[in-house]
Amino acid sequence: MPFLPYKQRKEIPSKPGIYYVGNNHCPVMYVGLSRKLKQRHMNHHRQVQFENFENPVIRYRILPENMLNRISDLGHTLKGLENQAKDYYKPPLNDTPVPNQTKIQTSHGPVYIQIHKVREAGYCLHFNSQDGDELAINTSKLPMVTRAIQDKRPIFLIASGYYKDYEIENYPFLNELAPFKNDKIYLLISRFIPYEYEYSDVLCYNYTVYGGNSKVFIQPYIILNNQPGFQEFKRKYLRLGFTNCERSEFAKQLLQLGDFN
Looking at per-residue confidence, does 239 or 172 come out higher? Predict the structure, then answer.
């Protein structure tokens, strides 16, 4: 596996793959993924932490071209490889807070949402994650992204689809969705605090946004259809893609559902 001293990370290829940061004492302290490895490490949210290791090294595994030509969902493949690496190496830093991270402001302010259309996007990989894992979404709205990162404001991912869509994509716990078979079903998938973005080549999206301090809402699902104020919120905001919904009364409901006090 190729490796470089962490201070030479600018020499990493700008290609999709998995990276491993550590040193001689612990070769794999942190595992991550990126569609463009070089860009990811120009301003990594743990960069200071990595630089403070004794003789830090970054190893990386680039996805070969023949593999890229075969796969249909790069994000799904990378996440699967990352999970395999985490299960195998048990990196000690992946599920820990970022040192000296500014305390999150939970008073009502900008609240960002992104829609995951099940029929188009399939099964949401966030449901394979655990609370505290690094999560990511794709968007093209850079001004909103940069503000969300700068202000450390939460992003909520919401799934939308009919019962049949969830069934086709093998979502678990379909019995919880059965009472809504005649309606479009909206699930609160996850929330996280964004800390960086990178340029993306995902179809129709220009940027991948990464974040931590995450929470995944599964077992049981949080079904939004019957939440107070949701119907008006749906009409005004759920057709806009990535957007700031702070003017909606339902934003307060999202913060409460997301365990923000």
Answer: 172
